[in-house]
């Protein structure tokens, strides 16, 4: 089905060039591609639609292998298509344990492909709206999380969601925020982040990365903007986040991670190295330093892996969840058949 | 398969053992379910309450007469809950009875499929270069390893001898026949080997409500060692092994022999319990046919089954 690909081509090349790198942007772009694809693509049967959608999902995944968001959005769209086809009631709350004995196979829908199309498009449209409102839903919980007079620490000033979350909290609460300097990849973002919050009345302190263990005992909560969330409750976030969360764990300081549901992957972190995006060496060792560049290897991971035991709570657009519950969100959002696209 | 022709001669315990004996692939909960199906085909209940009474009695007999009844009671409970649910939901309880009697073979087939599904899900956890530790006979674990082998993953396996029954020797041979490189070690050598091991996989006789597992003796101490060494500990089990028990330690498990026997008698023999309980905090994930669950997920499924 080569004619399905032009729709995705533009997104694929933007992902390959890392032009799109914020999960929120990727989610919005992907769901728009899905909408246009289901509307414009000529499909006559649902299995064909599913196969072609999966093909697009594979393309997007391969274009940016360390980033889960595009694949997650495609998996969710596939689940929506399958639910429409099967006439499933997503609210049905029955245990899967009975599947050994049950008599009823889910009945295929009585509607034919063309009748289904508007329903599928409507479901995807609703999902697109949900993605747009993710930050609002997460920010709605800000006042519950941030207490009056509290000191917070964040190692991820690159996160837009986190910035909005803290700005919302600042409307009702007075608090102090410590930001790690995030050398070398996020140092420039720290300034912008601090400035914005400072203007909103938050007292902001930028602390050296190396000072985290010393300062952690002053901190009431660590807040982290997660990059992606794995089914076992572990997460990836900007490099430097893991050591902060580990310090917090050792000092019994709660760690709150923010993540839209499109960041939740149904996969387990079997190969941690494969989840980490590597950056260029120039932020550590400028190319002008020719002799050294020639004789040294520079390793610059952009992201960090945070094991689930270091995270106390996830704040998602569906509410707050314990890391041990994330697998359930993944099981409810995606169909088992679509875990491998 | 029928052991007796009429209900009066029918003995649920004999039937259960015959199922286990005749089919080496069958698990204990499924054998219990098949025995109850056989019983239903021989009795013709007149009312839905008679149907439930017959089943309740039979599963109580079965649990009482079989030593180490944890696993089979998971099957009995699942079956009974299913019948109760079906007779409540529809006025037509006879349809439920007929469905169960007609589909004994289908349940067997589904149980086999569940194991394949687990093998497919779980083999993703095995990566090139991994050294895997396994303990005691578990068909789900071996089928998971075979599935990884079919996917051309290169891994090696450390197998414990698994005393007192010593089945580790047989398992090592089964794996070696397929070309897997196996190191067979004594049960006392697990710590000695632990720093070379990447992941631990064990099966389960039952998965308790807390997400802890009841399994062949020695599982709990391996889990503790894995935790100490920071190695992931995976339990591989079909969801029909989830059982509504909440043991706090191995001494809460049903069965005799649950306490230490102190004696000054020189001729007394070694105490060798069959099973132990691995608490949920030592378990990384539970790989099941309904997905990869955190231990907390087990109670959620059981609650949905019992209190819906």
Automatic annotation (TrEMBL), chain A:
Coiled-coil stretches: none
Subunit structure and binding partners: Component of the translation initiation factor 2B (eIF2B) complex which is a heterodecamer of two sets of five different subunits: alpha, beta, gamma, delta and epsilon. Subunits alpha, beta and delta comprise a regulatory subcomplex and subunits epsilon and gamma comprise a catalytic subcomplex. Within the complex, the hexameric regulatory complex resides at the center, with the two heterodimeric catalytic subcomplexes bound on opposite sides.
UniProt keyword Disulfide bond, yes or no: no
InterPro entries found in the cross-reference section: eIF2B_beta_subunit, IF-2B-related, IF_2B-like_C, NagB/RpiA_transferase-like
Key words of the record: Cytoplasm, Initiation factor, Protein biosynthesis
SUPFAM superfamilies reported in the protein's UniProt record: NagB/RpiA/CoA transferase-like
GO molecular function: guanyl-nucleotide exchange factor activity; translation initiation factor activity
Family to which this protein belongs: Belongs to the eIF-2B alpha/beta/delta subunits family.
Location relative to the cell: Cytoplasm, Cytosol
Biological processes per GO annotation: cytoplasmic translational initiation; regulation of translational initiation
GO cellular component: cytosol; eukaryotic translation initiation factor 2B complex
Native source species: Tortispora caseinolytica NRRL Y-17796
The name this protein goes by in its record: Translation initiation factor eIF2B subunit beta
Gene3D superfamilies: Translation initiation factor eif-2b, domain 2
Pfam families: IF-2B
Main location: cytoplasm
Top-rank taxon, per record: Eukaryota
TrEMBL record, chain B:
BP terms from Gene Ontology: cytoplasmic translational initiation; negative regulation of TORC1 signaling; positive regulation of cellular response to amino acid starvation; positive regulation of cellular response to heat; positive regulation of translational initiation
GO cellular component, one term: cytosol
Principal place of residence: cytoplasm
Keyword Transmembrane helix: no
An example Gene Ontology molecular-function term: guanyl-nucleotide exchange factor activity
Subcellular locations according to the entry: Cytoplasm, Cytosol
InterPro entries associated with the record: eIF2B_alpha/beta/delta, elF-2B_alpha_N, IF-2B-related, IF_2B-like_C, NagB/RpiA_transferase-like
Superkingdom in the source lineage: Eukaryota
Record keywords: Cytoplasm, Initiation factor, Protein biosynthesis
SUPFAM superfamilies associated with the record: NagB/RpiA/CoA transferase-like (SSF100950)
Similarity comment: family membership: Belongs to the eIF-2B alpha/beta/delta subunits family.
Assembly and interaction partners: Component of the translation initiation factor 2B (eIF2B) complex which is a heterodecamer of two sets of five different subunits: alpha, beta, gamma, delta and epsilon. Subunits alpha, beta and delta comprise a regulatory subcomplex and subunits epsilon and gamma comprise a catalytic subcomplex. Within the complex, the hexameric regulatory complex resides at the center, with the two heterodimeric catalytic subcomplexes bound on opposite sides.
Official protein name in the record: Translation initiation factor eIF2B subunit alpha
Source organism per UniProt: Tortispora caseinolytica NRRL Y-17796
């Amino acid at each position: 089905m080569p004619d399905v690909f032009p729709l995705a081509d533009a997104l694929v090349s933007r992902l390959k060039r890392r032009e799109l790198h914020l999960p929120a942007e990727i989610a919005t772009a992907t769901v728009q591609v899905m909408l246009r694809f289901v509307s414009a693509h000529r499909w006559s049967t649902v299995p064909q639609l599913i196969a072609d959608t999966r093909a697009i999902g594979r393309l997007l995944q391969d274009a940016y292998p360390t980033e889960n968001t595009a694949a997650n959005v495609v998996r969710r769209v596939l689940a929506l298509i399958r639910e429409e086809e099967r006439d499933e009631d997503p609210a049905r709350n029955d245990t899967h344990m009975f599947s050994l004995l049950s008599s009823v196979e889910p009945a295929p829908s009585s509607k034919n492909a063309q009748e289904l199309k508007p329903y599928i498009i409507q479901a995807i449209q609703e999902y697109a709206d949900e993605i747009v409102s993710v930050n609002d839903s997460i920010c709605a919980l800000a006042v519950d999380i941030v207490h009056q007079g509290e000191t917070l620490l964040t190692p991820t000033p690159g996160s837009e969601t986190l910035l909005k979350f803290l700005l919302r909290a600042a409307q009702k609460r007075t608090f102090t925020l410590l930001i790690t300097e995030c050398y070398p990849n996020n140092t420039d973002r720290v300034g912008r982040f601090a400035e914005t919050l400072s203007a909103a009345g938050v007292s902001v302190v930028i602390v050296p990365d190396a000072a985290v263990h010393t300062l952690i005992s002053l901190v009431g909560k660590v807040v982290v903007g997660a990059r992606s969330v794995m089914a076992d409750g572990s997460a990836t976030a900007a490099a430097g986040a893991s050591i902060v969360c580990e310090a917090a764990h050792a000092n019994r300081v709660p760690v709150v991670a923010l993540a839209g549901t499109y960041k939740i992957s149904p996969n387990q972190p079997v190969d941690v190295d494969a989840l980490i995006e590597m950056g260029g060496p120039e932020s550590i060792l400028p190319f002008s330093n020719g002799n050294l560049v020639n004789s040294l290897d520079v390793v610059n991971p952009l992201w960090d892996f945070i094991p689930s035991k270091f995270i106390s709570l996830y704040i998602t657009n569906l509410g707050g969840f314990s890391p041990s519950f994330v697998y359930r969100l993944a099981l409810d959002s995606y169909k088992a058949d679509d875990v491998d696209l | 398969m029928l052991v007796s022709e009429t209900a009066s001669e029918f003995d649920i315990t004999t039937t259960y053992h015959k199922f286990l004996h005749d089919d080496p692939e069958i698990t204990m909960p499924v054998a219990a379910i098949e025995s109850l199906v056989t019983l239903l085909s021989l009795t013709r209940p007149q009312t839905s309450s008679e149907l439930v009474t017959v089943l309740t009695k039979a599963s109580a007999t079965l649990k009482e007469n079989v030593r180490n009844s944890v696993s089979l009671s998971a099957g009995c409970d699942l079956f009974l809950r299913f019948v109760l649910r079906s007779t409540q939901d529809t006025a037509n309880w006879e349809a439920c009875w007929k469905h169960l009697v007609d589909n004994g073979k289908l349940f067997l087939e589904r149980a086999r499929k569940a194991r394949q599904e687990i093998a497919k899900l779980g083999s993703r956890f095995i990566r090139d270069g991994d050294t895997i530790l396994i303990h005691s006979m578990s068909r789900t674990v071996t089928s998971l390893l075979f599935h990884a082998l079919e996917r051309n993953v290169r891994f090696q396996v450390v197998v414990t001898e698994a005393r007192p029954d010593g089945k580790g020797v047989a398992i090592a041979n089964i794996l070696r026949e397929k070309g897997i490189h196996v190191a067979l070690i004594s049960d006392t050598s697990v710590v000695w080997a632990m720093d070379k091991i990447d992941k631990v996989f064990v099966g389960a006789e039952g998965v308790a409500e807390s997400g802890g597992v009841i399994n062949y003796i020695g599982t709990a101490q391996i889990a503790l060692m894995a935790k100490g060494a920071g190695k992931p500990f995976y339990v591989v089990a079909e969801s029909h092994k989830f059982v509504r028990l909440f043991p706090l330690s191995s001494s809460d498990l049903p069965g005799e022999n649950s306490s230490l026997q102190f004696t000054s008698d020189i001729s007394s023999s070694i105490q060798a319990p069959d099973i132990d309980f691995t608490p949920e905090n030592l378990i990384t994930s539970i790989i099941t046919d309904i997905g990869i669950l955190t231990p907390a997920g087990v109670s959620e499924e059981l609650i949905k089954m019992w209190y819906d």
